[in-house]
C-alpha cells in the first residue's frame, strides 16, 4: 500500500540540558508507521531540538529513541541518520554542487552506487518533486521553494523510514509555501512516516494524524488535530492558538 | 640639469638594463617561478593540514597548529630562510651530496607560507554556514566525510583571493633565497639584477628587476580584485518563477 518503506518512531522520556538550561524535560512522542505527526508550539519550546535529538544530531541526556520498536541509541549515529531524512528551514543545499549532485551525493558515497546509477536515481527523485529540468543548475539559481523541494528530494533519495521537517516553509516567500506544503502532503498521503515541526496551522490541522503541542520543553497536549484545534484543554494551548490563528 | 641627468643615468640606463634583461628572462624568471610556485603548492598542502588541525575537536592538534602558526608568522622571512637554509645545508650535503640551496629555500618559504595559508583556510572553513555540516551529518555522512565533501571545498572557494595574495608574497619573498648562495644558473630575478648593479655601479638592473616583479604581481593583484568583486556580487543568478509549484502535490487541494 505505502509507497515508502516507512517505519514507526518513538521517543521516550527525552531529557536534554545545555548547561543549566533544560531544553527538553521528559518528552514522549509516538509516531505510528505511515502517519504524520505535527509538532507545534512557540519559539524556544524545544521543537527543533527534539527533532535533532531523535536523529541524534544532539545526543539526549536521558531517554530512549525507538525506530520500528527497536532502540537506536546504541547504533552508529551515522547509520541511524541514513534511515531518517531531514529537511531544514534554511534548505541547506550544498551550493558548490549542482542540483542533481546534491541529491546523488549520498547515494554515490554512502550507498556506494556507481555515479551514473546514482545520477539516474537522483533524476527520478527530482522528477518526483517536479524539478528534473533543473538538474544541472546550481542551488543558488533556484527560488526558495524550488530549493526546498530539492532538499526534500535529497532526503528522499536515501529511502528513509522517517522524514523530519524542521519548519520547512518558514523561510519561504508566501507564494512559494504552497508548492512545498503540497509536496509534503503528497508524502504524507503516500504513507511516509513524518514528524513535522511547523507554524503552518492549516497543514497541521488538515494533513497530520496527530498534533503535539510543546511549550517550555514539555509536551503540553497531544491528540488528533480536531481535539487540539477545536477543543484545546489547557490554557497554554488556548493562548497559543489565539496568538497564531 | 646635471642632477636630473645623474638620476636618469642611475635608474634608467637603458643600456645597462638591456644587457641584463635577457638573463633575467631566461634564468631569473624561471628560477623565481620555481621557488614561488613550488613553495606555494607545498604551502597550500601544509596550510590545509594546519587548518584542519586548527579546527579539530581535539585540543592537542589545535594547540600544535596554534603554536606552529604563531612561530612561523611571527618570525622575519629573512631569519627563517637563513636558519633553515644555513642550518640544514650541511646535513643535506652530507646525506645527498647536493649543495643546491633550492630545496631548503623552498622548504623555508613553504614553512612560512603554510602558517599564513593555514590561517586563511581556517577562516574560510569556519565561515561556512553551520547548516552545511548539519545537513551533511543528517544525511548520514561522518564528521570527516562531511568536512572533506561539503565544508572544506566551500571554505577554500571563499578564500581564493587571499590565496592569490599569498602567491604574490611568495614571488617577492623568493628573492631572499640569494642569501643562501646561488650558482650563476640558480640566480633568480633579484640576484641577477643585484649582481649587475654591483658590477656596474648602476642601479638600472635593479629597476629592471623591479619592473619584472611588477609584471608578475600586478596582474595577480587584479585577478584578486576581480575574484573578490565576483564573490561579493555573485554571477547574477537567474531565478525563474516557480511555475511547477502548482503542478506537483495535487493532494493538498483535496
TrEMBL record, chain A:
SMART domains referenced in this protein's UniProt entry, alphabetically: AAA (SM00382)
Any one Gene Ontology molecular-function term assigned to this protein's record: ABC-type amino acid transporter activity
CDD domains: ABC_HisP_GlnQ
Domain of life from the UniProt record: Bacteria
Family matches, as InterPro entries: AAA+_ATPase, ABC_ATPase_HisP-typ, ABC_transporter-like_ATP-bd, ABC_transporter-like_CS, MetN_ABC_transporter-like, P-loop_NTPase
Keyword Cell membrane: yes
Main subcellular location of this protein, as a coarse class: membrane
Keywords attached to this entry: Amino-acid transport, ATP-binding, Cell membrane, Membrane, Nucleotide-binding, Transport
Keyword Membrane: yes
Domain ABC transporter: 9-241
Topology within the bilayer: Peripheral membrane protein
GO cellular component: plasma membrane
Subcellular compartments: Cell membrane
PANTHER family reported in the protein's UniProt record: AMINO ACID IMPORT ATP-BINDING PROTEIN, GLUTAMATE_ASPARTATE IMPORT ATP-BINDING PROTEIN GLTL
Family: Belongs to the ABC transporter superfamily.
Official protein name in the record: Peptide ABC transporter ATP-binding protein
UniProtKB/TrEMBL annotation, chain B:
CDD domains linked to this entry: TM_PBP2
Residue ranges of every copy of the ABC transmembrane type-1 domain listed in the record: 29-224
Location of this chain's protein in the cell: Cell membrane
GO biological process terms on file: amino acid transport
Entry keyword set: Amino-acid transport, Cell membrane, Membrane, Transmembrane, Transmembrane helix, Transport
Gene3D superfamilies: MetI-like
Segments traversing the membrane: 33-55, 75-95, 101-118, 138-156, 206-227
Main location: membrane
GO molecular function: transmembrane transporter activity
GO CC annotations, alphabetized: ATP-binding cassette (ABC) transporter complex
Sequence similarity: Belongs to the binding-protein-dependent transport system permease family. HisMQ subfamily.
PANTHER family linked to this entry: GLUTAMINE TRANSPORT SYSTEM PERMEASE PROTEIN GLNP (PTHR30614:SF20), MEMBRANE COMPONENT OF AMINO ACID ABC TRANSPORTER (PTHR30614)
Name used for this protein in its record: Amino acid ABC transporter permease
Species annotation: Arthrobacter livingstonensis
Amino acid at each position: 500500500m505505502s509507497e515508502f518503506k516507512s517505519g514507526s518512531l518513538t521517543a521516550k522520556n527525552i531529557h536534554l540540558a545545555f548547561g543549566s538550561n533544560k531544553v527538553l524535560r521528559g518528552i514522549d512522542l509516538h509516531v505510528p508507521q505511515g502517519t504524520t505527526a505535527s509538532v507545534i508550539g512557540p519559539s524556544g519550546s524545544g521543537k527543533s531540538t527534539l527533532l535533532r535529538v531523535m536523529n541524534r544530531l544532539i545526543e539526549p541526556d536521558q531517554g530512549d529513541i525507538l525506530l520500528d520498536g527497536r532502540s537506536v541509541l546504541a547504533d552508529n549515529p551515522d547509520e541511524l541518520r541514513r534511515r531518517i531524512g531531514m529537511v531544514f528551514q534554511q534548505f541547506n543545499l550544498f551550493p558548490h554542487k549542482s542540483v542533481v549532485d546534491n541529491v546523488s551525493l549520498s547515494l554515490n558515497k554512502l550507498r556506494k552506487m556507481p555515479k551514473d546509477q546514482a545520477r539516474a536515481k537522483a533524476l527520478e527523485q527530482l522528477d518526483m518533486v517536479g524539478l528534473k529540468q533543473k538538474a544541472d543548475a546550481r542551488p543558488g539559481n533556484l527560488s526558495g521553494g524550488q530549493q526546498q523541494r530539492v532538499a526534500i528530494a535529497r532526503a528522499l533519495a536515501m529511502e528513509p523510514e522517517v522524514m523530519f521537517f524542521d519548519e520547512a516553509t518558514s523561510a519561504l516567500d508566501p507564494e512559494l509555501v504552497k508548492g512545498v506544503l503540497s509536496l509534503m502532503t503528497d508524502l504524507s498521503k503516500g504513507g511516509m512516516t513524518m514528524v513535522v515541526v511547523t507554524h503552518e496551522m492549516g497543514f497541521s490541522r488538515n494533513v497530520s494524524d496527530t498534533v503535539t503541542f510543546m511549550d517550555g520543553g514539555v509536551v503540553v497536549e497531544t491528540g488528533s488535530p480536531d481535539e487540539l484545534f477545536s477543543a484545546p484543554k489547557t490554557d497554554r494551548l488556548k493562548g497559543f492558538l489565539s496568538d497564531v490563528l | 640639469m646635471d642632477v636630473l641627468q645623474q638620476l636618469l643615468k642611475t635608474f634608467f640606463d637603458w643600456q645597462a638594463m638591456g644587457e641584463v634583461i635577457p638573463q633575467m628572462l631566461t634564468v631569473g624568471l624561471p628560477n623565481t617561478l620555481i621557488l614561488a610556485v613550488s613553495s606555494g603548492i607545498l604551502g597550500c598542502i601544509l596550510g590545509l593540514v594546519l587548518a584542519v588541525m586548527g579546527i579539530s575537536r581535539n585540543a592537542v592538534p589545535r594547540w600544535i597548529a596554534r603554536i606552529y602558526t604563531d612561530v612561523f608568522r611571527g618570525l622575519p622571512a629573512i631569519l627563517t630562510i637563513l636558519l633553515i637554509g644555513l642550518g640544514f645545508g650541511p646535513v643535506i650535503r652530507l646525506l645527498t651530496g647536493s649543495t643546491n640551496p633550492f630545496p631548503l629555500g623552498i622548504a623555508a618559504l613553504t614553512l612560512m607560507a603554510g602558517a599564513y595559508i593555514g590561517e586563511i583556510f581556517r577562516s574560510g572553513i569556519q565561515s561556512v554556514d553551520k547548516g552545511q555540516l548539519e545537513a551533511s551529518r543528517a544525511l548520514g555522512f561522518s564528521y570527516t566525510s562531511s568536512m572533506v565533501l561539503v565544508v572544506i571545498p566551500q571554505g577554500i572557494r571563499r578564500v581564493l583571493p587571499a590565496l592569490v595574495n599569498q602567491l604574490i608574497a611568495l614571488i617577492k619573498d623568493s628573492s631572499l633565497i640569494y642569501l643562501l648562495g646561488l650558482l650563476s644558473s640558480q640566480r633568480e630575478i633579484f640576484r641577477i639584477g643585484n649582481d649587475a648593479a654591483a658590477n656596474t655601479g648602476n642601479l638600472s638592473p635593479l629597476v629592471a628587476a623591479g619592473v619584472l616583479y611588477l609584471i608578475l604581481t600586478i596582474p595577480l593583484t587584479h585577478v584578486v580584485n576581480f575574484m573578490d568583486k565576483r564573490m561579493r556580487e555573485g554571477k547574477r543568478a537567474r531565478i525563474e518563477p516557480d511555475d511547477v509549484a502548482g503542478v506537483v502535490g495535487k493532494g493538498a487541494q483535496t
